[in-house]
Amino acid sequence: MKVYQRTVSKSVSVTGVGLHSGKKITLCLKPMPSDSGICFVRSDSKNPKTLMANALTVGVTENNTSIGSGESTIQTVEHLLSVLYALGIDNVLCEIDGPEVPIMDGSGASFLYLLRQAGVRNLEKEKKLILIRKKVLVRHQDKWASIEPHDGFSIESSISFDHPVIGDQKFKFDFSSSSFIDKIVRARTFGLLRDVDSLRDKGLVKGGSLKNAIVLDDFKVLNSEGLRFKDEFIRHKILDTIGDLSLLGFPIAGSVKSHKAGHYLNNQLCREVLSNKENYEIVNVSELKSIDENIYDIDGFALPSLA
Questions:
Q1: What is the dihedral of CA 20, 100, 13, 114, to 10 degrees?
Q2: What mean pLDDT do residues 106-116 have?
Q3: How far is Cα 213 from Cα 205, in angstroms, rounded to an integer?
Q4: What values do phi and psi take at 59, rounded to 5?
Q5: Residue 273 and residue 226 share a domain
Q6: Do 74 and 150 lie in a common domain?
Q7: If you ran DSSP here, which 8-state letter would residue 249 be given?
Q8: pLDDT confidence of 307, banded at 50, 70, 90?
Q9: Residues in CB range of 263: below 8 A, 6 or more apart
Q10: CA dist 89 → 12, 29, 93, 158, 271 (Å)
């Protein structure tokens, strides 16, 4: 079985607000050749610098994942990266005229619609995987994340919040493009109303609203439309995790497990994997006969309802 690298069929753009900056930002996705990777560039910079999206370029991880530093910094890349990963897109230039990827509705659904508009095409070179060879575990206080050898890509994650709507949630996700679209892409980011002032004092969530996040007071969800899933919170954590772990640079053959993990631990897990070449191997998909040949099947993929 050969699975080929992918890019977008044509350039496409979208404009939205930045969750943390509050600025109006336009994102343009452009085709790239094989082995280019996922690249970002700030078109508003005086000296534009193209950044390869990988775990070692990650900077700040507070309430988002950012890459680069200084005027080249690009925040909140995780939702876009998650959708690119889900559609098997290995090579694309993400051109942005502001400091972060626009948040859109707080999920990955708007990027899915955008990529449907752009189209996805195969390139001439075979897709490679990062095959996990040894278990890797990282911890921070009562939070942890691990990855270990597995034939496919799966994530089993749990969260625990002292809140009557969230509480304890757990989700097991076996990756495929179709299951991501069905179960994960619509799950939105979330936050507590009581935290807003302290986050804004740190220069965060200036663009946050009920249009781009689930907001909760001490007792209930404030969004008039309610939740898209009863367990939308843990599903969004899975969305974040896929985006963060895509920064390993290749599709993953491994089993991920985590408890109360966020962007920081996800990045630490990536860095720990990459710190020792005994932990992983880069292989062509065709070398792994156990990989389902339909895992990246997106022919005629259906767009989800946002109801």
A1: -70
A2: 96
A3: 10
A4: -110, -105
A5: yes
A6: no
A7: S
A8: very low
A9: 61, 62, 63, 64, 65, 78, 240, 244
A10: 14, 11, 11, 28, 22
| Partners of 132 in the β-ladder | 280
Q: Can you give the pLDDT at residue 46?
A: 85
User: Do 256 and 155 touch, CB atoms closer than 8 A?
Assistant: yes
CATH number for the domain spanning 46: value is 3.30.230.20
**134 and 123 both lie in a single domain:** no
Same domain, 72 and 157: no
Do 152 and 268 share a domain, yes or no?
A: yes
Beta bridge partners of 160: 168
Looking at the domain assignment, is residue 283 inside a domain? Answer: yes
The H or E element spanning position 181 is helix 177-183
Burial class (CB in 10 A: 0-12, 13-18, 19+), 168: exposed
Beta bridge partners of 214: 190
Q: What secondary structure, in 3-state letters, does 41-65 show? A: EECCCCCCCCEECCHHHECCCCCCC
CATH number for the domain spanning 282: value is: 3.30.1700.10
- Which domain range does residue 40 map to? 4-127
Strand runs (DSSP E) across 149-274, as ranges? Answer: 153-160, 168-174, 190-192, 214-216, 252-259
> pLDDT of 51-86, one tens digit each?
999 999 999 898 999 999 888 899 999 999 999 999
Q: Name the pTM for this structure.
A: 0.95
Residue 299 placed within a domain:
no
Residue 268 one-letter amino acid: Q
Q: Which two tokens stand for residue 214?
A: 């689930």
pLDDT higher than 70, residue 305: no
Distance CA 194, CA 160 (A): 17
Report which of 51, 4, 54 is spatially closest to residue 249, judged by C-alpha positions: 54
Length of the chain counted residue by residue = 307
Token pair for 34: 């094989």
Interstrand relation of 190-192 and 120-126 (parallel, antiparallel or unpaired): unpaired
Q: Which residues are catalytic?
A: 263
Residue range 186-228, pLDDT digits in tens:
999 999 999 998 989 888 899 999 999 999 999 999 999 999 9
